[in-house]
Amino acid sequence: MFSASAVALLAVGIVVVLITPGPTNTLLASAGLRQGLRRSLPLVAAELAGYLVAISVWGRFLVQAAHALPWLPALLRVAAGVYIAWLAVDMWRAAVALPDSAQNASGMGSLFVATLLNPKALLFAGTIFPADAFAHWPSYLLAMLIFACLLAPIALAWIAFGAALGSGRLGWLDPAKLQRGASVVLGVFSLSLAWSALH
């Protein structure tokens, strides 16, 4: 099982990655924009299912690969740090665009597939979840429980954000400033990943 500090580090990593804009969060927000909060609630289950499958598959693969390639986990941490730094720069330069409200609403199937193919799943499996989570059932169940408990409110927040945009309640919000604030958080997180890989 994990120590209290390992649980705290896992939780922080999960939150930072889940709150960042990406394909899944954009679909959640656009569903909230078009369908409202209540009708979009089932999409939270689709996101959770997609991540559980993808993280589990990547995690098992990486644990097996690490036995043959012991340097792989450190390399993945550095690669993840670079990827997150790129995301931070990209977010700083461009505002998040939600799909037009006239587009077809996202169904559970399309959100599941988008989440299944989301690069964040590899990031979770390779750097944020401890390797022990994919080697022992109790650790796996605890890590996934923490993940599910954090994913649900964050997904709801993205749906609520889209619904609030659709209702005009967030007309005062400056998306560029929000984006730049998120990019700073991502940049700090990328440095911490690189630091942990090199020390």
UniProtKB/TrEMBL annotation:
The chain crosses the membrane at residues 6-28, 40-59, 71-89, 110-129, 141-166, 178-198. It is a multi-pass membrane protein. Its main location: membrane. It is found in: Cell membrane. Keywords: Cell membrane, Membrane, Transmembrane, Transmembrane helix. PANTHER family: ARGININE EXPORTER PROTEIN ARGO, ARGININE EXPORTER PROTEIN ARGO-RELATED. This is LysE family translocator. It comes from Paraburkholderia phenoliruptrix.
